[in-house]
């Protein structure tokens, strides 16, 4: 009886709440702001748009379901739009396209949150294959949508035209609009205006003032963790103490529950906990200062560089991003001039973007940037590994070499020591010593004892060339033979695959070639 009473009371509250909402269905104004524009709507168009707004509010049950999804997913849409530089007003388009249903499929076989067809998805660096479908990933698909809209807006300088091009394609939108609205900041909407934009305005009016109606401090929220494969949703369910069924429901972008190697993947799930999951930051990366008597922990960010996009065409320009910057992978060792010509960029600019000296060669398997690197990385620190240089660290995280040097008051590779904890975000205080931690093979977490920890017995000074001409007391050279793999080589010498990749600047695609000389440091 008590259960029935509680249920009846809950239903009463729900009906009362929606009664208030429905009594205050937002009305389409005669003038509204959109992106960087003023939209003026005549009476006939207002009535047309209002019908769509009313339809969205017609069923309280369906409205609540949709609004709950908006509340969960919209923070990630906003974040990705801000990162790309797209006005947040365009975020309502995802509600119009899919209702924020991850595996929505249209009659034209467009898929996912943002309803991408496969070809278009690959144009904006989304992975679509038998294992992964980024169109069903709220983080990656939202970034892809932002890139698509921003690219089209470059042709119009008008976000209304760019938005309509999302439905018509760039060619269709150009044929429809011509240059009538290019650069215009005041647009009049009437009965002849494109239906897709008027429907978008209906979604904006319906949702923009309702996003916080049902939110509270105790409400469930969507959290994201970056995961480097190979792993599985089953393993992650145990780690994060959520059900495997829930992870599968929230991460339909992995077709079989498996997360392959190759890049970091965004795994999301609903949580009521107050745990602060830092997006795109490796866990335990920041010093743990909760206990004043404990020593700070650092971790190596093995998920970097973060590669996204059409990795099957990584050696071609405009196909992948490296740490969220445009980049490309060298498929063979060559000169700067040849490589710059191959990717369609001037040699001096390419050298400047990648902090290269004249004459340094391009290494097979290495990733290079085709846009300016950042002033700081997305993680706070990096532990120097044997064989690393300031340049290789700067490339790994997409941070300018000059910024890396300035933050740590270190200028020469000769001053690097294995185990040094370099700052990647904050500048080290003047006179502050760089912590040195012992490197434990096979372990990601290391503890900083103090700033006067004994210096490792060997300091590796790496040259810009990955070749070693002779064997020394601390290192040897392995020449890659047919059939060799990084795993087989690591087992032969008793080291890890990650160590070999670090020592020889091998990218996440694990590409090695016959005849390549690999430097191996004895454990």
TrEMBL record:
Domain named LysM: residues: 223-267, 380-424, 476-520
Pfam families cross-referenced by the UniProt entry: LysM (PF01476), SLT (PF01464)
Residue ranges with Low complexity bias: 461-475
Name of protein: LysM peptidoglycan-binding domain-containing protein
SUPFAM superfamilies: LysM domain (SSF54106), Lysozyme-like (SSF53955)
Start-end of Polar residues biased regions: 451-460
Disordered: annotated segments: 451-478
